[in-house]
Amino acid sequence: MFKFFSESAGNDPKDFGKGGNYTDSSIKVLEGLEAVRERPGMYIGSTDSKGLHHLIWEVLDNSVDEVLAGHADEVVLTLKPNHVISISDNGRGIPTGINPQTNISNLITVFTILHAGGKFDNNSYKTSGGLHGVGSTCVNALSEFMEITVCRNGEEHFVSFKNGGKIDKEPTLVSQVPAERTGTKVTWKPDFSIFDKSDYDVELIETRLERLAYLNKGKRFVFDNQISNEVKEFFFKEGISDWVTNLNHSRKAINDVIFLKEDGTVKNRRTPDVQNSISISCAFQYTLGDAPIVYSFCNNIYTASGGTHLESFKDGLLSCIRERSLEAKLIKESVDILKSDILAGLTAIVSLNYSNPEYSGQTKEVLSNIEIKSFIREKVEELFGRFLEENTDQCKAILQRVDQERNLRLKVEMARQTDRKLALEGFMSFAGKLADCTTKSVDFSELYVVEGDSAGGSAKSARNREYQAILPIKGKLLNVWKKTNTSSIVENEEIKSLISSIGCAYGDKFDREKLRYNKIIIMTDADVDGSHIRILLLTFIYRFMRPLIEEGHVYIAQPPLYRAFTNKEVVYLFDDKKKDEFMADKGKSKSWEISRFKGLGEMSPEQLWQTTMNPEERIICKVTVEDMEQVTGIFDDLMGKKVHPRTEFILANYSNIRNLDI
Questions:
Q1: What confidence score (pLDDT) does residue 29 get?
Q2: 3-class DSSP state for residue 354?
Q3: Residue 189: is its pLDDT beyond 80?
Q4: How do residues 472-501 score in pLDDT, each as one tens digit?
Q5: What is the mean pLDDT of residues 309-337?
Q6: Hey, where are the domains in the chain?
Q7: Boundaries of each Toprim domain copy (predicted)?
Q8: 230, 249, 360, 658: least surrounded by Cβ within 10 Å?
């Protein structure tokens, strides 16, 4: 559901040491693959697990570009033993002749020279995900070996590299093959003298291939996992429309899935005489759910932080719904409907194919082209308007859904204007609960949200008052995922105190500038009730204060489960595995005793500080979300109103249950 990353003692920033002599010989010139191996982070971001998977995405993008160009309809990704990956497609195959610029084989040029490839030639690829031209070269530079097989023009060619891109076997004509047999196959093993050794995330790879199948309607993506001897095929006849349907499997839809598509050209912003090809595809549906589920892509690349294509889609929806709402006399002025009103309950996929994309960075998370805005906005407004005209019943349902959200927003705003208790008197009403810290520096302050008054009392005594605040939470919070009435949620006393303590409001009024603490640390008992309270808190934060998670402000405290002690020594053990290891090592000695903490309230303030609150000793886990679609789907299944998805989940996972309090 969430990813937890540990932050333990020793992570505080330290001063950098002074450098040595800075002379003429200090200036280093790194060329080609040497530069990639020397500074891999500049090219792929990191050398941890994320960087390891980045190699896969780089090669996969090249095959997907053949799909985008209409020359391939199948891509196969094979996971082999010993961290070997192979990706093949049935596209045109990389040209195998002599490159006129480098005077060497194109098979060597493409895999050894940075910024070499067909993506810079508009006649070869109209749109492409791999526009930086460093993908294949980087993978080669960072691999123990790489092998390439190409079928093209009735011939099969082979070339291989080793030790970071050094030629192992020169390009060779292997055999004659049928002319219709075409494509490229790339096989490599990462160099673990550069990367941290870790296993591939099979679920992450499957998700990537599934998304590509959704985005490329009628194309087949295959994952051949030779480690588990499983083969999975992803193929969706209706593409992103099928995706929207599947995303809404546990949400009640109020209209059919709407699919809009338009092709055209727009003027190049820097060279107005040049026309760039553009194709926008959107699939969306309104539901009775609250939180929107919206994903955007450009040339099959997930733009996690959106960009001009996504905002233009929203602007087109907003303009169209405003116009129809005025005609239906639901509003008096178009400005009465805000963008937040039309997003509530919306599930949407926005996919742009564009020949000249520009991003805010190499990670391609935000599309920044401004020349595409009017094309997308106008086409969405026109095509959506046509749908509403032709489907009057569905038009009425959508307009009523938006109007319901608008009225709810107005009621909440009126409550805020007429009753300032949440911000003023409300702060005083919970002041006895919140034990605030003395520092005014947000960067160094921490808010511990603690289960119950008993643990709250120990935490208040244990804390460092200068930078640690304590907020006890009584009982269990509301399950806000089941609730649709926002005003009733925020009137709950525990939630009200949490909102006021954190300080940055909630929902569309969230203001990160008003955040009062850099770390919000959830500290609950290590039992079933504690886990339930923790997930209820995370559910509230995810739904109403999601930027806190996205920006890395939410943490989970890790109190120890066991205390091992003698007359002279104490050791804290944080889980059963650590306890078992300890017992295997020292448990034979009769001098050691082990006790299990039943709750935070059992710990003395000294123990709580030493194990769970002291930055020099504690372990806290940062909460992050890597896949918003997956997390939202799990919240729908486990925290939503429908019982059946929870039953299925329990039946599928009951064998993994540990530490039940029975």
A1: 40
A2: strand
A3: yes
A4: 988 778 888 877 677 778 778 888 889 989
A5: 93
A6: 33-234, 240-417, 430-559+603-625, 562-596
A7: 445-560
A8: 658
Range 547-550, long-range pairs (CB < 8 A, 24+ positions) = 547/510, 547/512, 548/502, 548/504, 548/515, 548/520, 549/2, 549/623, 549/624, 549/625, 550/625
CA dist 422 and 5 (Å) reads: 33
Q: Which two tokens stand for residue 346?
A: 């919306």
Tokens at 537, concatenated: 């808190």
Q: Note the pLDDT of residue 113.
A: 86
Q: Token match 């990367």: residue?
A: 195
Rounded alpha-carbon distances, angstroms, from residue 79 to 74, 202, 471: 17, 9, 48
| CATH code reported for the domain at 430-559+603-625 | 3.40.50.670
Q: At residue 509, what is the residue type?
A: K
33-234 belongs to which homologous superfamily? Histidine kinase-like ATPase, C-terminal domain (3.30.565.10)
pLDDT of residue 517: 95
Q: Would you say residue 229 has pLDDT above 90?
A: yes
- Among 443, 249, 410, 263, which residue's Cα sits nearest to residue 338? 410
3-class DSSP state for residue 8?
strand
Helix/strand/coil for 170: strand
pLDDT tier at 1 (50, 70, 90 boundaries)? very low
- Rounded Cα distance between 558 and 522, Å, is 9
Query: Greater confidence, 28 or 631?
Result: 631
Q: What is each CA distance from 243 to 233, 256, 516, 626, 628, in whole angstroms? A: 15, 13, 39, 19, 14
Q: Are 475 and 484 in contact (CB under 8 A)?
A: no
In the predicted structure, residue 238 carries a pLDDT above the cut 60:
yes
Q: At the topology level of CATH, where does 240-417 sit?
A: Ribosomal Protein S5; domain 2 (3.30.230)
Residues 6+ apart with CB under 8 A from 335: none
Spatial neighbors of 458 by CB under 8 A, at least 6 apart, are: 600, 601, 603, 604, 605, 608
Winning range, highest mean pLDDT, from 149-158, 577-586, 626-635: 149-158
What are φ and ψ of residue 469, in 5° steps? -105, 150
Contacts of 269 (CB under 8 A, 6+ apart): 369, 370, 371
CA 239 from centroid of its chain's CA atoms: 21
Instruction: Report the pLDDT averaged over residues 39-55.
Output: 88
Contact 516, 503 (CB under 8 A): yes
Residue corresponding to tokens 């009062």: 516
> Of 588 and 284, which is predicted with more confidence?
284
Per-residue model confidence as pLDDT tens digits over 134-165: 688 999 999 999 999 999 999 999 999 999 99
- Across 378-535, the runs of DSSP E, i.e. the strands, are 446-451, 468-473, 519-523
DSSP 3-state of 173: strand
In this model, does residue 434 exceed pLDDT 90? no
Burial class (CB in 10 A: 0-12, 13-18, 19+), 513: exposed
**74 neighbors 223 (Cβ within 8 angstroms):** no
* Residue 661 backbone dihedrals phi, psi, to 5 degrees: -85, 70
Alpha carbon 162 to its chain centroid, in Å, reads 33
End-to-end CA distance of the chain: 25
